[in-house]
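[audit] Reproducing an earlier prediction to check determinism. Same input, same settings, fresh worker. If the tokens differ from the archived copy the diff job will pick it up downstream; this log only records the rerun itself.
[audit] input (252 residues):
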Amino acid sequence: MTTRRERWERHTQAPLIGLSVLFAVAYAVPVLAPGAPEWVLGGAAWAEWAVWAAFALDYATRLVLAEDRWQFVRRSPLDLASVLLPLVQPLRLLRLVSTLLLAGQRVRMASQVRLTTYVAGVVMGLLVFGSLAVLEIERASPTATIRTLEDALWWSFTTMTTVGYGDLTPTTGLGRLLAVALMLSGIALLGVVTANIAAWFVSRFEAEDRIDHLNHRAIQDLTAEVRELRRQVAELQQQTEPGGQAEHVPSA
């Protein structure tokens, strides 16, 4: 039997994922078009806060509907931290981090989303939003080497894969902090992908071992049946041979 909280989570799954897409657009607009009209930039900022507020309201509602509220808080500390993070200091980067974490949590909870799809989505999200974030942070610095979206995408890719050619590097403290986060995320995702591939190979080997074991057992059973049949045939032959101990029924 599903609880009220589970029903709420199921009904709000798709709307919140749709709002996370709206947040992605609202975050990208000021970065890609900083010279846009003021009403466009203001609308994007309001959209970011509105999406974050929707996720915060969702967390509060799930907390109220939870049967054991303290247990709910203990099991989802990252959700609570993501809700409170933008209130500490209203930076766009903090709103980005918190909304990505909250949206990722809801996507991960969807039963139709497989691990491979989830990991691929996380990789693409980190690549795109990491590029937008470092571009917004770095291009205002006079010593910046990352000034275009192409440079930012290249830097994010080499950073997440821990290659780090060094041709493009962040020069600000916040940019370097972002680089550390991307490197750690890349290492973690690489570990997840490697573990997933290893688990797939192990499952295949175990399946083949089970098939071999079943085949071996079937061969043993079949051999035993053949031996039993041969024994029975030998007994029948012995009984029907002349001089054997076959029992003759007298004729009428």
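[audit] rerun output stored. Observation attached for the diff report: The chain has a mean pLDDT of 81.
[audit] end
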